[in-house]
Amino acid sequence: MKILDFGSLNLDYVYHVDHIILPGETELADDIRLFAGGKGLNQSVALARAGAPVWHAGLIGGDGGMLRTLLEDSGVHTDYLKTDPVARTGHTIIQVDRNGQNSILLSGGTNRMITDELADETLAHFSEGDVLVLQNEISALPHIIDRAFGIGMKIVMNPSPYDGHIASCDLSKVSLFLINEVEGMQIAGAGDPDAILRTMAERYPDADVVLTLGSAGSVFSGHGQTVRQSIFHVHAVDTTAAGDTFTGYFVSSFFAGRPVKECMELASKASAISVSRNGAAPSIPSLEEVREADLH
Ligand code: RIB
């Protein structure tokens, strides 16, 4: 089994500020740093650091070399990562406040230049039983889902950031959803966690669902099984990529056939460690660090 992550790659410009800036306000940032990011890239790095065999497909511009290097240094295969030398890589402007909370302004760049043809070319290298991991920061998602489902791949969907594009995707083809409470409300139209899980089960009976609930932990629901996981406590420095770290670690261990309780615990611990560190991809721990961390 191979894991393909067809997803975004961003240059994250991170500004540390006292508080997230308000409309009309000017604030002096404490510092600015450039990190590798993008939900797709972060999840690939988390998958690889968790020990999974992962290929990252996507598109970067001439300015995106550091993203390819970061993936390769993390053990991610980049055979299907393309470069358009004259285009601009996706980028973000991220404010991180004194409590580690963030706000993200995203410019799609090359992530929005993925075509159906590029998708077909990439998916031709994968087969039945392989796993496809998707987020919502690239173009051509509806086509990628249809084509991968036709091949017999298992589709994992993290519909983040949730927007109107998701409505054009056939989500009945998804095998595993990883959603937070807000995305759960947007997809299921339901209010509380139990209602979200009930609606998801009615609407997508063949799919498993992991619902993350911030400080209230996370819940897995699927195939007659419900598993709850509480969070591990750390001092929050930067929450960027916490969800991506959870996704990568959960998917890696789930498709390696580990018991769900073990997958939830591992993902939750890895995610907590990432919150205690700065940046997106650089904050994602290795499997060894997760196993050795003494967190409660
Ligand atoms: O999930 C965190 C990521 O979201 C950041 O790395 C940023 O690039 C945005 O895509």
Written overview of the protein:
With 296 residues, the protein is α/β, with parallel strands linked by helices. Helix content is 32%, strand content 24%. The protein is built from 9 helices and 13 strands. It has helices at residues 39-49, 65-73, 116-123, 141-151, 181-188, 193-203, 242-255, 260-275, 287-292, and strands at residues 3-6, 10-16, 31-37, 54-61, 81-84, 90-96, 102-107, 131-134, 154-157, 176-180, 208-212, 218-222, 225-229. It has a 9-stranded mixed β-sheet, with helices on both faces. A 4-stranded mixed β-sheet has the order 3-2-6-7. Helix 1 crosses helix 7 and helix 5 crosses helix 6 (193-203). The longest helix is centred in the last third of the chain and has 16 residues, at 260-275. It is globular. The mean pLDDT is 97.
- List the ligand species: alpha-D-ribofuranose
What low-confidence regions span 5 or more consecutive residues with pLDDT below 50?
none
Distance between the termini: 33 Å
**Dominant shape:** globular
Helical fraction equals 25-40%
Strand residues, percent: 15-25%
The total count of helices amounts to 9
Mean pLDDT across residues: 97
Major sheet strand order: 5-4-1-8-9-10-11-12-13
Q: List the helices and strands in order.
A: EEEHEHEEEHEHEEHHEEEHHH
Structural class: alpha/beta
Tally of extended strands? 13
For the largest beta-sheet, the strand count, sense and barrel status come to: 9 strands, mixed
Gyration radius, rounded: 18 Å
